[in-house]
């Protein structure tokens, strides 16, 4: 059975085609820097244990456009892996916001699509794009089952003291205003890898997902118990274009004194803030380059970014009453050794001591980057949301 997984993030579109139950990747790829200069598609095909890669540079304005080009690559030309769209049995879609409705993989019906649509305003960078990808896939793979796997699902175990906001109960009971949490598929996948690697019974893990969107989760014995994103994927850490935590008084001030509308506020906090707002680019690679050239705004952006992560690690050490492992993952977490070093330095009191040489030589698979005597293990684990989604889709289709 071929399962195609589509993972649209805020700045990228990732895809993987798996042969199940063998769990073998047939092809994978990535459309990066969507909507900004320098966008490209990287397409990898796996044959007999060998990987062949091609890179296509073209300006890709939207996720819909990127997906259409990817689907053409799958069935046409030299790197085609399927003869026709009928070769795909199921398409697994990452959907970011599922509200309180979905705790596991879900067959997509018109009703499910309506629920996803209702949550557009809470995840404006994600749910509209996820919805668009579902529609493109429905039109392309008419015979395939379409399945949604929600970022929010893994966080359904968060206890009430952590998921409730300190506002009157009515807003929770009548309007479902609470912490939902995001990147759940990634936090689940990397924490399960870490638990296997730690090989002990009770585990306390802090998972740090640093992509374009960033979040951090406290995981006790495999269950999410707190996370930095909340009602929508805007709170907590500083991100590519999102502010992370900000005092709501700033919003009142901008409305009252500068006449900001709802749309302007949403644009400011979702699209013009974070690394972009402070440092001048949403892409960490650009920020690094600018900082290396002495750009003060980029240097400050890096400081704010690392400082916020460090504060949350301290908070979650308290939530968990100790830490066995801190896991770094996603685009920045996996690739930016200088960011990992900036986050870990000064956390010796909590028992984290980084092995700076090991940190610099990470090469794409699970690696311990702490010193042998570090009380807390520091790990880099490549996330694989696509694999986790394929796995959940397969279970949904085959387990009665
Ligand atoms: N080699 C690298 N060094 C530093 N940052 C990197 C590197 N490669 C990717 N990144 C950063 O990772 C981020 C994108 O992460 P990713 O997990 O792909 O995002 P998303 O899924 O949220 O769209 C970007 O800010 C990008 O600059
Ligand atoms: C939820 C979220 O922020 O996702 P991404 O990091 O893929 O944008
Ligand atoms: Mg992502």
Classify the fold: give the CATH topology of the largest domain: Nucleotidyltransferase, domain 5
Q: Work out the helicity level.
A: 25-40%
Strand % is 15-25%
Order of helices and strands: EEEEEHEEHHEHHHEEEHHHHHEHHHEEH
Biggest sheet architecture:
8 strands, mixed
Overall domain count:
2
Stretches where pLDDT falls below 50 for ≥5 residues?
none
Beginning-to-end CA distance, first to last residue = 17 Å
The helix tally amounts to: 15
The largest beta-sheet arranges its strands as 5-4-3-2-1-6-8-7
| Principal-axes shape call | globular
> Radius of gyration from the CA trace?
21 Å
CATH architecture field of the largest domain: 2-Layer Sandwich
CATH 4th-level superfamily of the largest domain: ATPase, nucleotide binding domain
Chain-averaged pLDDT: 95
The distinct ligands, each listed once, are: adenosine-5'-diphosphate, acetylphosphate, magnesium ion
* Strand segment tally: 14
Give structural attributes.
single chain, 400 residues, alpha/beta, Nucleotidyltransferase, domain 5, 2 domains, eight-stranded mixed β-sheet, six-stranded mixed β-sheet, 21% strand, binds adenosine-5'-diphosphate, binds acetylphosphate, binds magnesium ion, EC 2.7.2.1, magnesium ion binding, ATP binding, ATPase_NBD, Aliphatic_acid_kin_short-chain
Describe this structure in words.
The protein is α/β, with parallel strands linked by helices and 400 residues long. It folds into two domains: 2-150, ATPase, nucleotide binding domain (Nucleotidyltransferase, domain 5, 2-Layer Sandwich), CATH 3.30.420.40; 199-380, Nucleotidyltransferase, domain 5. Helix content is 39%, strand content 21%. Helix 1 (63-75) packs parallel to helix 3. The longest helix has 25 residues, at 296-320. 45% of the residues are buried. The protein binds adenosine-5'-diphosphate, acetylphosphate and magnesium ion. Homodimer. Catalyzes the formation of acetyl phosphate from acetate and ATP. Can also catalyze the reverse reaction.
């Amino acid at each position: 059975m071929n399962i195609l997984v589509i993972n649209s993030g805020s700045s990228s579109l990732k895809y993987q085609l798996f042969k199940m139950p063998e769990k073998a990747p047939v092809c994978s790829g990535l459309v990066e820097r969507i909507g900004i200069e320098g966008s490209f598609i990287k397409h990898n095909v796996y044959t007999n244990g060998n990987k062949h890669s091609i890179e296509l540079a073209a300006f890709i304005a939207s996720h819909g456009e990127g997906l259409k080009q990817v689907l053409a690559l799958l069935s046409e030309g030299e790197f085609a892996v399927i003869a026709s769209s009928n070769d795909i049995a199921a398409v697994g879609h990452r959907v970011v916001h599922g509200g309180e409705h979905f705790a596991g993989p879900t067959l997509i019906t018109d009703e499910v699509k309506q629920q996803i649509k209702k949550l557009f305003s809470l995840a404006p960078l994600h749910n509209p794009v996820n919805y668009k990808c579902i529609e493109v896939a429905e039109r392309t793979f008419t015979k395939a089952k379409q399945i949604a796997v929600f970022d929010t699902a893994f966080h359904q175990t968060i206890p009430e003291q952590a998921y409730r906001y300190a506002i009157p109960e009515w807003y929770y009971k009548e309007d479902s205003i609470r912490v939902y949490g995001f990147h759940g598929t990634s936090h689940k996948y990397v924490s399960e890898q870490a638990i296997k690697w730690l090989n002990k019974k009770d585990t306390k893990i802090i998972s740090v997902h640093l992509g374009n969107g960033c979040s951090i989760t406290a995981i006790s014995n495999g269950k999410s118990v707190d996370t930095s994103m909340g009602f929508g994927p805007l709170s907590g850490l500083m991100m590519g274009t999102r502010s992370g935590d900000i005092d709501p008084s700033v919003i009142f001030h901008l409305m009252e004194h500068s006449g900001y509308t709802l749309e302007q506020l949403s644009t400011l906090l979702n699209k013009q803030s974070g690394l972009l707002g402070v440092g001048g680019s949403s892409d960490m690679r650009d920020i690094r380059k600018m900082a290396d050239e002495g750009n003060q705004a980029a240097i400050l952006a890096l400081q704010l970014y690392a400082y916020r992560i460090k504060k949350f690690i301290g908070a979650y050490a308290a939530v968990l009453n100790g830490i066995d492992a801190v896991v770094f993952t996603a685009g920045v977490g996996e690739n930016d050794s200088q960011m990992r070093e900036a986050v870990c330095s000064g956390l010796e009191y909590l028992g984290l001591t980084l092995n700076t040489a090991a940190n610099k030589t990470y090469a794409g698979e699970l690696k311990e980057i702490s010193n042998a005597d570090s009380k807390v293990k520091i790990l880099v684990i490549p996330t694989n949301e696509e694999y986790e989604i394929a796995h959940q889709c397969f279970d949904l289709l085959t387990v009665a």
